[in-house]
Write the structure tokens for this entry.
Amino acid sequence: MAIVTAPSVASARTGIVWGLLGVLAFSFTLPFTRIAVETLSPLFIGAGRAVIAAILASLALILTRQKLPERRQWGRIAVVAAGVVVGFPMLTSFALTTSSAGHGAVVIALLPAATAVMAVVRGKERPPLPFWVAAALGAVAAVAFALVQGGGAFGLQPSDLLLFGAVLAAAIGYAEGGLLARELGAWQTVSWALVVASPLMVALTAFSIAQQAPTAGGAGWASFAYLAVVSMFLGFFAWYRGLAIGPMSIVSQTQLVQPVLSIAWAALILHEHITWQTVLGGAAVILCAGLAVRIRMRRP
């Protein structure tokens, strides 16, 4: 068992690179979910993509002859599964039936700060006060940017409550998964989480199919395939590796870039109009994220 502690500056930079690769993969999730829910039920999308990912995970675990996790680790794997396999995909799928991809990025922009808080609580990390100031400014900038780009929808809707729940679920799953990845490995962690959640997700998928047979065009199925293979599986390879290298309070801040990317993809894929606020907001988000990372890397 190899547990990473007190990462050096070089290893922290490596963690950031892996984290950014994960963020890039996840940045397509909201736009593609928005496309998928146009023709497929949110229950089928949220559960079905986890079933496909669980099949891929099972094959990977079997072909590489991975050992079973220790008994004490199964409970932690269940926490990861509840957060990132069940909670986040299901809640965002239902939220995006009424919310736009741009508005979804409003609440999801809170995820880096939430993950940093969970890293402090669970991972016992203690970043300095300037880090929290920079992280808070980044979160505010990301939320303000997404709100402006999304039309300034300040009213709290049912979809917002679902998205807030998704943020909380993902933050818990990210923090616990980042710690567990130091023991099991990055892709092994998400793979075992998918396996643990598979009985529930298979049952929910079967129920959704019985209620309404899934029918979609090429764009709908292609979006669903991306959500299943990349958002639900391959993206976590990079993301959990970055969190495992850590510190999680640093790597989590790379996700401040995700609202910028998500709205950019929404503009390209969903033909949303990009304004000058996009450029200024994106610059502010990236600047604050970079400042937070530099502050944390300079402190032991």
